[in-house]
Amino acid sequence: MNRVQSRNLVVVLITLIALLVLFFLLRPESSAPEEEEQVALAINGNTMSPEEVSVTEGTHVNLQITSDHPIEFHVHGYDLEEEVQPGEPVELMFEATTTGRFPIEDHDTEVELGTLIVQPR
Amino acid sequence: MRRFILLTLTLVLLVATPGQALAHGFGQSQNLPLPFWLYLFAAAAVVLVSFVQISLFVTERHALPRYPRLDLLQLGSLRALLSARPFLFGLRLLSVALFVLVILSGILGAQAPSSNFAPTFVWIIWWVGLSFFTAFVGNIWPLVNPWKILFESAEEFARLLGIKRGLYLGAPYPASWGVWPALALYAVFVWVENVFEGSATPLNIALFALLYSMFTWSNMYFFGKETWLRRGEAFSVYFGVLAKFAPTEVRVSAPETCQDCGACRTAEQATKGACVNCYECFARATPEDRQLNLRPPAVGLTLTEQVTPDRMVFVVFLLASVTYDSLLGTPPWVELQTLTALPQTLGLIVVPLVFLGVYVGFVKLSQLFSEGYVTFGQLAAAYVYSLAPIAIAYLVAHYYTLLLVQGQAIIALLSDPFGWGWDLFGTADYTINPGLIGADSVWYSQVALIVAGHVVAVYLAHVASLRLVPSPRLQNRMQYPMLALMILYTVFSLWILSQPIVEKRNNETMPAETVSQPEPAEDADQFDQNLRQPPMPKPPTPSAP
């Protein structure tokens, strides 16, 4: 290895170290998940409120669903399914183990109601 | 640090309105947008790495790439497999069978996109999967292209019937058309994928496939099969560009074979006597002259000496279309669209034109830096392929989870392609495992991919500069505008990945607004007022009474 090459190697190494340091400086500390999170979901027509349910990975989620018409409440990915009748609130509990965006829909009509967002810790 | 986190959270809490029009034609990715801190890190990394790279180039001149090659056909067992007729015939038969299955399931099958074979196969397995395969393994499209195979079969049949010159009308292909027909067809395809609302409907897929078949076959008949595959068959041209990145190439070692090949002798393939990735010559060559080489990835992008303007525009359009898909879902785009009420289709014309304009601008700048040593045309042609790695890295970063997660649906669909409740292979009950890769691993891999693509692109631009001018001083100067363009393009890709996804509802786009997480009870009240007015306007922010 000649002088230029070894100098270049040093430059590359310093760059990599600088990037690593920058990465760990910027990375936020992982947030502890809420033990349990209750979210009330109201479905009116083709809309759900709130339209987004955002939780942290590992949270025990407790959805309380009400609807103004009978629907087949379905969360993609998690493959949760629950029949909801008007006037009869339904409780749906699950562990948010998988991170990502998951559409929530009425499985009967395939109408999308909203999104479940599970953020990594 | 905390401010970054807060900013990220506010970004994430943007109200996304769900809808019927799905991102990427069919199948929604479950990717979360890059957190803001990671976006900042990646952008900083791109800038830092770029300048380190440039400083290395100054001290170490890379020789023009005479890259190492390993001929896979020299390896006994591989040669036996790859040239075995039953193997090749099986591959082609499989391809035609899948093509027929797409059309049959599209027409006859259940029309819900998720219970029909056609949408998942076409949009995820073939379009995304084969693009990845072509860029990272090699181009098998010339071998398995069903339109080509079926046309060849028809030609053989015609010969049996005594039609000597096969199915070819002998119409001369106008030279000025270049690859414009392929570009136009590719543009239509991208429109169907991203703009057309019914792109996930099985019947539409079958109809489009049939329409495209008719068009392709009649043009093959008019202008000749090879001519049309080279100039007009959108996917052949598209995969041909990706194949330049691939770590494999086909090469014909006997120059005589390529002597009178229309494809090699035209500008595109004039790579100093070497006949690389010319599938016509490869098919014509005697087995001893054929090489299937393993080579370092991306070196194929440095091969091109001359790129005609039509091809340059095709490549720029390809770069733009990769970005366009996800640009559609970003809040600023949706907002712009709501403000201007312009149709999505216009975006498909405007975005590539903006890309072309920016590219041309930076090339012009580079030409000024070269003190007139090279012409604008030479530079524009020389640099265009060096941008491809950024687009390929973005393509993979954006779609690989879709392929790995939503692509799993094909396992069940193979058993029940029509959605009729069949279970041919006992896999009909397979359910997708969404937890294959965690969102944070996805983020880090996306950033790593995009930074790597950028590094490769900067290197390729450097090689292009070396080839164009002899003076080291000019080489260095010329690189700067391209470096700036690449940083711009890469950071733009990262920015798109960091944007919250906004979807459309009932064909009507929604403006995106930042809101804090609404109190469910309060929100429910507002909802009563807005009851049954689909498409619903976004619920007002909680600050409203």
CATH superfamily of the largest domain in chain A, by name, is Cupredoxins -  blue copper proteins
Global mean pLDDT of chain B: 83
Tell me what the CATH architecture of the largest domain in chain A is: Sandwich
Main beta-sheet strand count, sense and barrel state of chain B: 4 strands, antiparallel
**In the residues of chain A, how many domains can be counted?**
2
Computed structural class of chain A: alpha+beta
Spans where pLDDT lies below 50 across 5 or more residues of chain B: 1-25, 504-545
Query: Mean pLDDT across all residues of chain A, rounded?
Result: 89
Question: How many strand units of chain B?
Answer: 4
Total helical elements of chain A: 1
Shape of chain B: globular
Biggest β-sheet: strands ordered side by side in the sheet of chain A? 3-9-8-5-6
- What share of residues of chain A is helical? 10-25%
Major β-sheet annotation of chain A: 5 strands, mixed
Radius of gyration of chain A: 23 Å
Identify the overall geometry of chain A.
elongated
Task: Please sum up the structure shown.
The complex is a heterodimer of chains A (121) and B (545). Chain A is α+β, with helices and mostly antiparallel strands. In chain A, 20% of the residues lie in helices and 47% in strands.
